[in-house]
Amino acid sequence: MPEQFPIQIDLPPGFDKAPAILALGGELKSSICLIDAGRAWITETMGDLEQEFVYRNFIDQIDELFETTPPAHLVIDKHPDYLSSQWGERLAVKYGLTLHSVQHHYAHIAAVMADNALPVDTKPLLGFALDGLGFGDDGTIWGGEILLADYRRFQRLACFQPVAMIGGAAAAVVPWRNTLAHLLPIWEQVHTQFADVDIVQFLKSKPVETFQTMVNKGMNAPPASSCGRLFDAVAGGLGINREGVAFEAEAAINLERLAATCFEQVCEPYAYRIDRDDCMHINWQPMWLELLADIRSGVEPEAIASRFHHTLIDALTKVAQAINENHDFNRIALSGGVFQNRLLSTYLPRSLESCGFEVLQHRQVPVHDGGLSLGQAIIAAAR
């Protein structure tokens, strides 16, 4: 096997007869996974495929693999604009291969399952897939997903309340756009009740009416259930990287650093609401009103950041318990780039375990999109 596949894991029980399958991962933190002869072989994370040298390296590694171990099946992300997906489509036509597409967040959860050696016929578990974004089965942007899943199928049972990404991709690099997007549904209350709060004064200097029109008309403001954008929104509200970030997740990293200074001392969660429907929505509007009140009262940003993290932990725990009332599961799998946050990856499992759940986290494979390719490959193998 070529040296570019340094991560090697034995396939879980029941996958020993899987044919040669090549999965091409995502777009950011791209990786490739080959399933062959009862093992999964995974490359190191290559980086962002939109960077030319990364994309060329991605193609070169695939070309080398086709020369040594040509696959029978190809697997890609469902996002039609991912360069990895587009390249996979070309390869499938060129070589006459069966092509599978797998939903982004489902692949995250399947990767945790495989990383923990769960057998092919394992019963469904609950998965928390929290990241910046991924293409959802309904054509919208997902990123705060609670899925009931096994290797063969999944059901979206809950998610974060979708909020507009004002300016589309610009929202991923300008945190205040996410702050405004979260506040727009309650803007009348916010701009009158909290007119003296710094972030509200800042947002009033922006063309709020224009942005509201964009959201109302769906003009370059796609709704997203993204957990990553929620972190950006709270960071922007606290003045952390408010007007821009230099690299992916910079605002979230800095928000976590603030919270870590007093996390065990300041632990009261903010209010939130769980809107029950076929797919539960975690609604953060009550949190924003309390958070703005804290800012106006002069509460230290460190304490607000800590309370925000505790709110996420409390909300996700409560959602798991609510879903468990109607669905039989005892395991919960955690995946997605948000779980690089040490506070969440440490204290959410403790909260869930205190409720009787067994929590699965990554062992050998990256929690971020570098692990997607394993999830894609193992789902295709189960099919």
Automatic annotation (TrEMBL):
Residue ranges constituting the Carbamoyltransferase Kae1-like domain according to the UniProt record: 127-376
GO BP terms: protein maturation
InterPro entries: ATPase_NBD (IPR043129), Carbamoyltrans_HypF-like (IPR051060), HypF_C (IPR041440), HypF_C_2 (IPR055128)
SUPFAM superfamilies listed in its UniProt record: Actin-like ATPase domain
Ranges of residues in domain HypF Kae1-like: 17-115
Pfam families, per the entry: HypF_C, HypF_C_2
MF annotations from Gene Ontology: carboxyl- or carbamoyltransferase activity; zinc ion binding
Domain of life: Bacteria
Similarity-based family: Belongs to the carbamoyltransferase HypF family.
Protein name: Hydrogenase maturation protein HypF
Species, as recorded: Mariprofundus ferrinatatus
